[in-house]
Amino acid sequence: MDESEELRAVRRGDASAFEALYTRHRIAVYRYACTLTRQRSDADDLFQDAFLGFLRNVQEIRSADRVLPYLLRSIRNRHIDSRRRAANKNESLTAAEVRAAGSAPWQHSEEVEGLKQIALALQQLPEEQAETVRLRIYGELSYDDIAIEHAVPAATVRTRFRLALDKLRHLLGRSVRDV
Amino acid sequence: MSDRELEQWLRDQVPDGPSAALDARVIAAGRRALAGRRQRRAGAAAAALILVGLAALSLGRDRIAGDALRTAHAAQRIDVAEHGYFELGVGSRFAHATPAPRLRLELGTVEVHAVHAPLVVELPGDARFHIERGVGSVRIFEQEERDVSQANQQEQTLRQNRSWPRKSLVVVLSLAALGIGWVELQHEVLQVDGGSEHKFIAIEGLGAKTRLVASTATNSSPVAQPLRVNPDTEAADASPRPENDSALVRGRVIDGVTNAAIEGAKVAWVRHWDESRVGMLTLRSASRRMIRGVAAKDLTVELDGSRVDLTGIVPAREGPRTEIVAESECDADGMFTLPPQAQPGDFLRARASGYALGRFPFGPEQVAAADSPPIELQLTPECVVRVDLAPIDGAPLKGGGTFTFAEFTTPLGVADWTVSWDMRPEPNGAFELVIGEPAELALKIWAQGYADATASVRARPGETRLTIPLEQHAHVYGHVTNAAGDPVPRVAIHVISTKRGLFGSSENHVSSTTNAEGFYLANTYAPEVTIALQADGFVPISQVVKPDGNALDFVLESADACSLSGRVVDEFAEPLAGVDLRMINDGPGLIRAYRGVSDESGEFDVSDMPPGAYTLSAEIRFAMELDPTSGESRRAPLPEHVVHVPVRMQQIRLENGEQRVGVEVRLPAGGRITGRYRGADGALGAYEWIALYRPAVLGGSHELLASTRTSADGGFEFLSVPSGTLAVATSDAEGKYRLLTMHGAETHVVEFGSAPASVTGVVRREGQAITTAAFALGRVVEGELADTRLGSLDADGRFKASDLPWGLYLLHISDPTTGTAMLRRFDLDRAQFDLELAWPRSVVTIKVQGAPVAAGTRVRLTLVAIDELRLEGVVPPGHLAIASATSADGRTFTLGGVARGRYRVQIDGASSNVELTVDDENAEMVVEVPNP
After folding, report:
1. Between chains, do B417 and A108 touch, taking CB under 8 Å as contact?
2. How far is B421 from chain A (nearest CA, A)?
3. Which one, of B331, B279, B275, B233, lies nearest residue B114 by Cα?
4. Cβ–Cβ under 8 Å, residues A29 and A139
5. CA–CA separation, B297 vs B278, rounded Å?
6. Taking the CB of the first residue and of the last residue of chain A, which one, N or C, has fewer CB atoms within 10 A?
7. Chain A CB contacts of B17 below 8 Å
8. B439 — contact with chain A (CB < 8 Å)?
9. Do the chains contact at A162 and B99, CB–CB below 8 Å?
């Protein structure tokens, strides 16, 4: 079953086709979500949400090669939404709440230090560069796909990516050198 | 690092993918969503069903594969005849991430309680439907496809089009609150005709308590009658919650410092769900007995054969979760009321603007007495830390704060756990940190263009102000010229600063090179840095400077290449070929190694080095072999079984242009390990993998030094083995290994295998082999002797035993001519074991205290143990007697040749309590024993 056939099958309600599609995209979508949220727990929520949203709107997806971009965009939109909701609630978390809501001490080590570091470094880049890195390295999109997503020429995407890498190399300096 | 390597590194830092549990969850949810789609496509319309009588509750038809979702579900039967209706509570902490829980209501009455997510109720085909009471907002929409947030838009459309049936209303219910966290509606407010199309309503609002009634289609009354399951209880229920209103728990929220009432404080009654909970379903009876179901996924509740389908509830993640049971807002006197159904472990969470979040226990003991005084909840004012980032030059913060972020670390005193989080200050560098409780904070500021700053502050109730000065990055710049004043391009510049962080310090390296004009520029973070300059043909420079904004110019002294030559020998002064010698420059800057390899005569030459300090290291790395075509010797890789570990030799300083010759490098000779491997069947095993490790010390991993394959006869060998404790290991199924300690150039023999072995040996006394003694040999197996062999020494004084299994043995040799005997223990761990024994020369004198013993009395020493090995019960009694003697005076007994061990003294067969230990087989000792 090729990917377009698979997408048609998902539209018909074929669960095994969905499973195949899920298996193909799960890693890219998840890793992308992680770099946005910095935390696995939040990434888990976005991730599940994105796939279920995909199923709801599967009729609107034009072709199989748009599935992954759709999922990634969906993750991003949901992430922005949840950030906005959190801001609107005007509930800046106090330390006690952070502590209460956070994981228990023994779970703290699960917090991926490297992930946090990368997410923070990405935050310091201009957003279009950071997003290019997220989509390219973690979302596994091609330059052309990113170009479509960002509505810019593919050459611009390449330039952004290279600039971003240079900055990351500087920002992550010592960690990278220690490898 | 290339782009590709960097990309790979970035990839490696991020989790590999979703967890198996998440996979299972998403696939399951997906399957469910698709199943719903298939059903709708088939146009299946469910028949109207009636909810009556006794209900068999069957929770959780788990149709989903995947271990994570196989949760044991409770199956309960509940008697509802006396209650008349259910309250159906559906909740999931993560409801926002899921489609709204969906309830298909046929005919009957369902009370919905504590719906955290919007609950979508599907209206039956031609039934009428109304909501008897409820709180929150109710929306009606037509298409199931949409989730509730989208239904909002649909609602707007319906209002505009007026295409919705006239009687149908979109109502937002908000009636007077009773102050107990929920409100009630006493009469019908909403009625919907189901019509031929399925309609849906969504009920939203925390703490919603909505009673839904579906009535028969045949009833044409505009206001449908609720279907009475049990008229009596229905009537009883008409009085609104009589027992609860009287039992409300009252409390007051006050300022912990001033004791003033806090108006508008919100008090939430919070309950923890246990860790295994995956979503929740509750059913309540009218008498408020709560029956809580477990995981709700694709849930079908069967009520006396009728079904209520609930879908769209996903399992919550594992871990403790909380749910707000009820909430109340404090009035002007700080008073609040809450219903009293507290369970052990519940707590109240009180929050008010400007105060730290407060947590208070709210178990049954707090609500036990209805007439008890109000519970008093004291809130402490929040700790607010206002931080200003102030560049020390007084200029506004560069970069508008965009590239500034701060990390806060709070040690919690729980082991070493700290909580840290970060935030971005305002563009002017100010930010505010609100801490719930007083705490010691460590702050770390990263701001682009400034040196990292750290500060610590104690957050106290109220406001604490803190200004953190930021130091601008200093630039280090200048020109590099040669002695003639010409610029030197391509000089490698390293600026090294030591950064002191919260938890130790680290070195920061910034590198730069000079351009064609000899100019360099490097950013630095520290007030004091080490700057190192390196360029081919020049003497390297390294110096500590304090960047002060002024140019730092350097003049490089041109360097003449240095060289080092000499000879590598082993400790017997024999030349060593194939030794890799490295001169590694000391000091800061680029690390460079200059290499040379010794030839067959051990000669080496390292040249073209700049002057400076070096560390010379040497390592046997190559084997020299003869090139068959040219006839010259050439380098070949060292065989695997030859260990090569670099040896750090010495520090050498080369002055400008120095050509040092005649350096003798002496490599310590390594040891040798030889051995043989036998398989389980006893056959010599060829091509077995044998590895030599240096065992890990205090954790860490074992260091593999060398490995080899056994030859056809099972033999193997390691050469050039370093000193220390080593392990030789096999890779066979048994994973056998031997530990040994190597000293210098020793040879160790290691044998693996369980094939029959043989033991030979000779015993010497004063250098002469004993030929008169008898021996007994036995293997110690679980405290008993097995495989015992008896025999006499041959004419050459040798004893021999063969066809022995491997293991721990005792060897007993008794000399009838002297009446003495000795015992030895040894590990038979090789096929051919050779023992070289010397007869003990110890002399033990036993002095009898008290009256002398009778003439002819014998004193015997009975061996009790050798080292840690206890022998009583292992060695036959006859063999235990090691030595015996008689005395002429009845007082002094002298026994010669007592071997190492612990003995008990027997006098004329009577055992005394005296024990003696012989450690030194050449010593004399005197022991006093009372006369028995």
Report:
1. yes
2. 9
3. B279
4. yes
5. 9
6. C
7. 26-27, 30-31
8. yes
9. no
Q: Suggest the residue from A23, A99, A129, A167 to mutate for an interface test with chain B (most B CBs closer than 10 A).
A: A99
Query: How far, rounded to the nearest angstrom, does the alpha carbon of residue A174 sit from its chain's CA centroid?
Result: 25
DSSP annotation of B125 reads S
Complex ipTM value: 0.84
Q: CB–CB of A56 and B33 under 8 A? A: yes
Query: For residue range B251-289, what is the model confidence (pLDDT) as tens digits?
Result: 888 888 888 888 888 888 877 654 333 344 444 333 333
pTM of the predicted structure, to 2 decimals: 0.36
Question: Does the beta-carbon distance from A133 to B403 stay under 8 Å?
Answer: no
- Using a CB-CB distance cutoff of 8 angstroms, which residues of chain A are in contact with residue B410? 95
* DSSP code, position B185: -
B472/B477 Cα distance (integer angstroms):
15
**A22, A34, A44: which to substitute to probe chain B, counting the most B Cβ within 10 Å?**
A44
Contact A179 B5 (CB under 8 A): yes
For residues A16 and A20, give the distance between their C-alpha atoms in angstroms, rounded to a whole number: 6
Give the gap in angstroms from C-alpha B147 to the nearest C-alpha of chain A.
9
Q: How far apart are CA B853 and CA B887, in angstroms?
A: 9
How do residues A93-125 score in pLDDT, each as one tens digit?
Answer: 333 333 333 332 222 333 446 777 788 778 778
Burial of B645 (0-12, 13-18, 19+ CB in 10 A): middle
Is the pLDDT at B881 greater than 70? The verdict is: no
Q: Output b/e per residue, A2-22; b: 16+ Cβ within 10 A.
A: eeeebbebbeebbbebbbbbb
3-state SS assignment for residue B284: strand
Beta-carbon contacts below 8 Å between A and B: 162
Residue among A114, A120, A165 minimizing CB distance to B6: A165
Residue B417, chain A, CB below 8 Å: the answer is yes
The answer to whether the CB of B148 falls within 8 A of the CB of B119 is no
Alpha carbon B697 to its chain centroid, in Å, reads 20
Of chain B residues 122-161, which have a CB less than 8 A from chain A? 145, 147
Cα B810–Cα B813–Cα B818 angle in degrees, nearest 5: 150
pLDDT-derived band at B682 (thresholds 50, 70, 90) equals: low
- B635 strand-pairing partners: B624
- Tell me how far CA of residue B625 lies from CA of B629, B633, B646, B708, in angstroms: 12, 5, 22, 20
Measured in whole angstroms, the distance separating CA A48 from the mean position of its chain's CA atoms is: 12
Give CA–CA dist A21/B38, Å, rounded. Answer: 18
Question: For residues B597 and B635, is the Cβ–Cβ distance under 8 A?
Answer: yes
Distance from CA of B27 to the nearest CA of A (A): 6
DSSP B720-754: EEPSEEEEEEE-STT--EEEEEE-TT-EEEEEE--
